[in-house]
Amino acid sequence: MKKLTTRKQYDETKARVEQLIAEATQKGMMEPDMDNAYTQEIALLSKLMATYEDEYLNILPLRQKSPLIACIEDYFYAHGMKQKDGAKLLGVNESQFSQIMSGRRRISMPFAKRLRAKMGIDANLILDYA
Question: Cβ of 49: how many Cβ atoms within 10 Å?
């Protein structure tokens, strides 16, 4: 099959991929970096499904978290802090901080300076991802 063009074909392909994954896992054929008939067929069918999803299902791609946001979250985790604690530390209200962390609000220069001063985040990381 070169292309999926119907929802029925998509659903059948999805069921086949799930079957292949189950069989390969049971046989120990799904370890990282394995290249075998199972992984090859799964890869091929997954590409067909992805193309169908892009063309017909309007599925939005997963957003990757900014390395700067990940760094802030790592700091919180390492220091046992919650988001409200971070907002207080950085001198913004919780709503603004939540918007920054979710990417709905841009990081201002004063906030960027506080990230550097209060959390010790590398200035280059801030400049690259703010």
Answer: 19
pTM for the full predicted model: 0.52
Residue type, 94: E
What average pLDDT does the segment 25-40 reach?
A: 88
> Which residues lie closer than 8 Å to 111 by C-beta, 6 or more apart?
90, 92, 100
Of the candidates 67, 85, 64, the residue with the CA atom closest to the CA atom of residue 76: 85
Mean pLDDT of 2-29: 93
**Is 67 within 8 Å of 129 (Cβ atoms)?**
yes
Cβ-contact 68, 126 below 8 angstroms: yes
Return the exposure string of 110-125: e unless at least 16 CB atoms fall within 10 Å of the residue's CB, then b: ebbebbeeebebeeeb
Q: Is the pLDDT of residue 59 over 80?
A: no
Q: Which tops the pLDDT comparison, 60 or 11?
A: 11
